[in-house]
Amino acid sequence: METTGAITSRVTGGLGHGFEVQLLGPRAKLADAVRTASPALVLIELTEVTTDLIRAVETVMADCPARLVFLAETAELVHAADSLRLVGALDALVLPKADAREALDALRHTLVASVRVPVVHHARGRRRKAAARPAPGRSAGPVVAIASSLGGPKALETLLRAIPKDFAAPVLICQHITPGFSDDLARWLSAETGLSVREGTDGLPLVKGQIIVAPAHVHMRVTAGGVLRLDDEAPVGGFRPSCDVLLTSVAQAAGARAVGVILTGMGADGARGLLEIRLRGGRTIAQDQQSCVVFGMPKEAIALGGAEKVLPLDEIAAQLVRWVS
Fold it and tell me: What percent of the chain has pLDDT over 70?
């Protein structure tokens, strides 16, 4: 990994002013550094997850709580960081390459948002019990979010036909569609696939195996508690519902348990949301060019670095089943 100074320049160069960021190397004495500087945000290079590192995070969160965010070079390391989240670390994120400007901008946006998260004191007597519970602010299980636009209904039918009825995660769909037709889309998908597909409603709790279509003309989000929220705020990128809004909310709610898919469609909606899922350690797929009606949204997601895998449409469901299971 690069030197701490190089990473500091790359990551914090566009954060702006207003809070102090401290970046530590993998061998830093975490508790001592936090006590000395008391920064608003602590970024830590993650090269491996060890018992000593877990204990160090426990100590910090019990004795001198701070916002700890780990930066790793691979998604595999971010997945392994779940044990650090469970003892109080705020998050673990993939560190984009130095020339991935848009991905770095998205990472900086996430870090700025992290500073607004309250710092929680973890009592020592509760730390071990916490390991048996989901990390604070995360959905308890995997959540799948799918973005689609032009050519999407048929692609969704093909994908959902291959999803088993006992699929172990809720599936949330944001399809660009004319207002008034999203409920028809849900009923059609249900009839064609034999699965439980319905239009989303405000306050609906997420249930494994349920497939939910975002209503036309409103944004659909997921809360940290696994509940749907609908709102009629301004369009994002010209779209309401916005795929970016849905995917970003799933990234924030489910963290490393989020799974994002971007299917055929024109434009770039969903690309940033898919990247947000990947930065937080989730798994991501973009449909390949050969099987797309329009290779717009997937192409933008791939260019941004948001796609972990690029797959033909008929292989996506099997990959989802492997990841969710």
Answer: 84
